[in-house]
Design the sequence.
C-alpha cells in the first residue's frame, strides 16, 4: 500500500514523505526518546557509584572499583560483548603539601593544591616572578626572568591581555616555565571564593621536574599586586607517590549489521581527580555513555556500523586510556576501521553537536538535528559548532585524522567553578540535563552508525597536518610532544 501511495506523489514528496530510510530513522528516534524518558538510569547509577565508590582516580582502589562497577552494569543491561582493555600506566597520587609566600624571611602559609605529576619529593625556596599568562610571548620578552626562580602564572587569560593571546593548558604553561629554567610554578585559579583546582601539569603523563601548585584567585591576584612593587618569595614543599600500576578501559560492543568492520566509538572518561567525587568531570559524561548503551540494548538497535561504548581511564593524567586504545589499533592494523568518535566529556543538556573542525560535516548534523527538533525543539536548538580542540579523549583519534563530534552542552555556569575542584559533587548534577544528553546523543549516535555516507572521512597524514595547523593547534602539540611532523 505504501508503495502504491508513493507513486501518486511528486518526486520531492516521495523523498521527504515516503523514503523508507527517513521513516525508519524517525521511528527509531521516537523509540529512543520514549525509552530514555521512561527508563533512563544515568542519574541514578551515577549517584549510586558516587555513594559507594567516591572518586575514581586512575590506579587507585577506587578507580579499579569504578572499572568493575561499569563492567557489571553493562553486563546487567544484557550486553554480551563487554571487555576490559588493560594497560599499564605511571600512576600519580598526591601526598603532603606546604606552600608559604611572603617577604624574604617572613613567609606565611597559603592554601594550595599540588598539580598532578609533580615530583615525588620537592623542597624549593626562591623568588617569585610574575609571568602573566605564562605563554610564549611572556617568556620571549624576558627569557632569563625565571631562571632559578618560581614562575607565577594565571591559569586562563588575564582580562587585559593582548588580542590573540593563546589560551594554553596548565600543562603547557608548566612545560614553558620548565623550558625557561623555573624551579617551580604557582598557578592562580580563575574562580572566585578561594576554590583550589587540581589537574595534571604534565603534557606527557609522566612526572615533571619541578613542583607545580595552584592557589586561589584572591591570594593569587593579591600576590600579583604585591609583586608590582616589591619582591616576594615562596617555599614549596611536597611529597607525592608515583609508580607503574594497571588500569582498564571498559568497552561494550554492538556489532554492525552491514558494515561490522566500520566502528563508531562513543566514549567518556570514567576516571576523576581525588579532591571530590568527579560528578561533573566526568560522571555526567561517562554515565550518559553507559545509559546510551543501555538504551541501544533495550531497543535491540542494530545499526549498519559497529558501535563501541567506551569508558576511558587515565584521561585526567594525560589521555592515557584513549592513547592506549589508538596505539593498539595502530599496532594491530585496525585504526582505519574507526570511522568516527563521539566524545562525552562534561556533557549535558545539548543544544546541538560540533563538527570537530570539519565544516563539511555541518550539513549532516543540521539535517539530523532537524529530526531531533521534530521530537523536542524546546531544548535542542540545532546549534552546530565548528571548532577543534585538545585535552580530552578525542585528541588521540583526531591526531590520526579520525573525525569526531561532541554535544554542544549548555551547563549551568556555576558548575565550571568546581571544575577539578573539591566542590565537584553530586549536588551539582541536573537529572533532566543528563536525560536530555542521553536522548539526543543516542539519536545522533544512531544516525552516524546507520548513515549511508558518513559526514566526514578519515584524513591522511598530510591532510591531518594541514587540519591541525589550520586550527592553530601546532604550537600546543609541539609543547606537548605530540607534533610528529618535522615542521
Sequence:
Amino acid at each position: 500500500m505504501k508503495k502504491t501511495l508513493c507513486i501518486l506523489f511528486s518526486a520531492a514528496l516521495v523523498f521527504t514523505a515516503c523514503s523508507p530510510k527517513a521513516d525508519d530513522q524517525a521511528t527509531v528516534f521516537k523509540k529512543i526518546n520514549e525509552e530514555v524518558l521512561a527508563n533512563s538510569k544515568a542519574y541514578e547509577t551515577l549517584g549510586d557509584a558516587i555513594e559507594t565508590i567516591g572518586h575514581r582516580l586512575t590506579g587507585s582502589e577506587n578507580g579499579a572499583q569504578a572499572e568493575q562497577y561499569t563492567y557489571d552494569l553493562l553486563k546487567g543491561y544484557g550486553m554480551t560483548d563487554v571487555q576490559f582493555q588493560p594497560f599499564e600506566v605511571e600512576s600519580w597520587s598526591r601526598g603532603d603539601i606546604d606552600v608559604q609566600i611572603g617577604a624574604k624571611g617572613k613567609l606565611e602559609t597559603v592554601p594550595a593544591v599540588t598539580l598532578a605529576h609533580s615530583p615525588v619529593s620537592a623542597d624549593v625556596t626562591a623568588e617569585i616572578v610574575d609571568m602573566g599568562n605564562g605563554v610564549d610571548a611572556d617568556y620571549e620578552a624576558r627569557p632569563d626572568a625565571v631562571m632559578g626562580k618560581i614562575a607565577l602564572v594565571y591559569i586562563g587569560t588575564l582580562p587585559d591581555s593582548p588580542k590573540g593571546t593563546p589560551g594554553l593548558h596548565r600543562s603547557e604553561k608548566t612545560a614553558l616555565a620548565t623550558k625557561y629554567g623555573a624551579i617551580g610554578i604557582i598557578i592562580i585559579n580563575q574562580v572566585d571564593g578561594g576554590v583550589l583546582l587540581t589537574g595534571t601539569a604534565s603534557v606527557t603523563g609522566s612526572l615533571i621536574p619541578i613542583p607545580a601548585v595552584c592557589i586561589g584567585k584572591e591570594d593569587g591576584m593579591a600576590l600579583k599586586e604585591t609583586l608590582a612593587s616589591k619582591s616576594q618569595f615562596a617555599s614549596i614543599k611536597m611529597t607525592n607517590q608515583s609508580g607503574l600500576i594497571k588500569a582498564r578501559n571498559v568497552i561494550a560492543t554492538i556489532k554492525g549489521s552491514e558494515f561490522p568492520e566500520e566502528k563508531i566509538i562513543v566514549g567518556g572518561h570514567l576516571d576523576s581527580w581525588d579532591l571530590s567525587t568527579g560528578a561533573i568531570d566526568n560522571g555526567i559524561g561517562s554515565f550518559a555513555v553507559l545509559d546510551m548503551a543501555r538504551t541501544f540494548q533495550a531497543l535491540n538497535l542494530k545499526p549498519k556500523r559497529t558501535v563501541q561504548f567506551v569508558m576511558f581511564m587515565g584521561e585526567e593524567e594525560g589521555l592515557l586510556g584513549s592513547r592506549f586504545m589508538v596505539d593498539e589499533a595502530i599496532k594491530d592494523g585496525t585504526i582505519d576501521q574507526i570511522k568516527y568518535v563521539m566524545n562525552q566529556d562534561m556533557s549535558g543538556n545539548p543544544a546541538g553537536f560540533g563538527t570537530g573542525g570539519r565544516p563539511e560535516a555541518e550539513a549532516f548534523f543540521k539535517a539530523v538535528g532537524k529530526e531531533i527538533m521534530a521530537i523536542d525543539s524546546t531544548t535542542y536548538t540545532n546549534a552546530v559548532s565548528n571548532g577543534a580542540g585538545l585535552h580530552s579523549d578525542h585528541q588521540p583519534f583526531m591526531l590520526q585524522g579520525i573525525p569526531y563530534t561532541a554535544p554542544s552542552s549548555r551547563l549551568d555556569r556555576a558548575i565550571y567553578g568546581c571544575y577539578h575542584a573539591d566542590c565537584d559533587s553530586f549536588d551539582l548534577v541536573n537529572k533532566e540535563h543528563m536525560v536530555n544528553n542521553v536522548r539526543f546523543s543516542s539519536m545522533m549516535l544512531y544516525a552516524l552508525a546507520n548513515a549511508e555516507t558518513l559526514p566526514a572521512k578519515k584524513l591522511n597524514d598530510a591532510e591531518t597536518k594541514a587540519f591541525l595547523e589550520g586550527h592553530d593547534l601546532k604550537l600546543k602539540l609541539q609543547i606537548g610532544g605530540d607534533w610528529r611532523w618535522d615542521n
User: Anything to note?
Assistant: The radius of gyration is 24 Å.
